[in-house]
Specification:
The complex is a heterodimer.
Chain A: E1 2-8, E2 11-20, H1 25-38, E3 42-46, E4 50-53, H2 55-70, E5 74-78, H3 82-90, E6 98-100, H4 103-111
Helix pairs in contact in A: 1-2
Chain B: E1 3-10, H1 15-30, H2 34-55, E2 62-69, E3 73-80, H3 108-116, E4 119-125, E5 128-136
Antiparallel strand pairs in B: 1-2, 2-3, 3-5, 4-5
Classes of the chains: A alpha/beta, B alpha+beta.
């Protein structure tokens, strides 16, 4: 699992790949903490290369969403696999985080 | 064709990848679709993490996972000798409709398990927790 990020206009796009589970969720949290610190307005978490996430990873996503909300930044997630989208829906996370089908769609909404 | 596989797992998070490998190997032998492998991985991680984090006060312990894979169903039994815990009645019920400010993560893992398996049963027997999960394949 790795978290990489880059600027696209006003938004930071963070990409996480591989598996996020109970053994490495802390690394994921550290990766996102750096993103949150650098951000100024909007963060997009791209999950296209993410193959697996459990509640340990959802916890990190929830904490990030709360922190970004507190600092007044926008937050969205994009490109979830069908299985990961199901996990988000069962958890009710689709109601607290904006989810988009593609990075382009998400960036249009965040930068628009 | 059916297959039984037993794993002895230690209560440390590094074991999660070994469990995931076992699930993936079994899934490829049984020809499960990727979505089934994902679900089985997830429910087993949530149950295992719960045991690792809450079943014992301290020290390293072992628990058992037994898979019985048949073409149309997978039965998983998880047995530990930690403190009694019935996920069907003892787990926190998360509010999955709460606003973001009020959202907490407690109970979410067990909520995922309950939602993603087809049958879930619990027994406390001779000082052990016995959790049985059934997932039907191909529905």
């Amino acid at each position: 699992m790795q978290t990489e990020w880059e600027w696209k206009d006003e938004a930071i796009v963070a990409r996480v790949d591989g598996r996020v589970d109970g053994a490495n969720a802390r690394e994921f949290q550290q990766g996102l903490a750096a993103v949150i610190k650098a951000s100024a307005g909007a963060v997009l978490l791209d999950m296209e290369k993410l193959s697996y996430i459990s509640s340990a990873g959802l916890r990190v996503v929830l904490l990030a969403a709360k922190e970004l909300r507190t600092q007044g930044s926008k937050f969205a997630i994009c490109s979830l696999s069908a299985s990961i989208l199901e996990v988000f829906k069962i958890s009710g996370f689709d109601q607290i985080v904006q989810i988009y089908g593609s990075q382009d769609e998400a960036l249009a909404a965040l930068n628009g | 064709m059916s297959e039984t596989l037993a794993l002895t797992v230690e209560t440390k998070p590094e074991e999660l990848s070994r469990i995931a490998e076992a699930v993936e190997d079994l899934g490829s032998r049984m020809d499960w679709p990727p979505a089934v492998v994902f679900r089985v991985n997830l429910v087993l991680e949530e149950v295992s993490i719960n045991i690792m984090n809450y079943a014992y006060d301290d020290g390293l312990h072992e628990f058992e996972i037994t898979f019985t894979a048949e073409p149309d169903a997978l039965t998983i039994e998880v047995v530990d000798d930690g403190r009694p815990f019935d996920p069907l009645s003892d787990a926190l019920q998360p509010d999955v409709d709460a606003a973001i400010e009020d959202r907490s993560i407690g109970g979410l893992g067990i909520h995922l398990v309950k939602t993603m398996v087809d049958e879930l049963s619990y027994r406390r027997e001779r000082g052990k927790n016995r959790l049985t999960l059934v997932s039907r394949i191909g529905e």
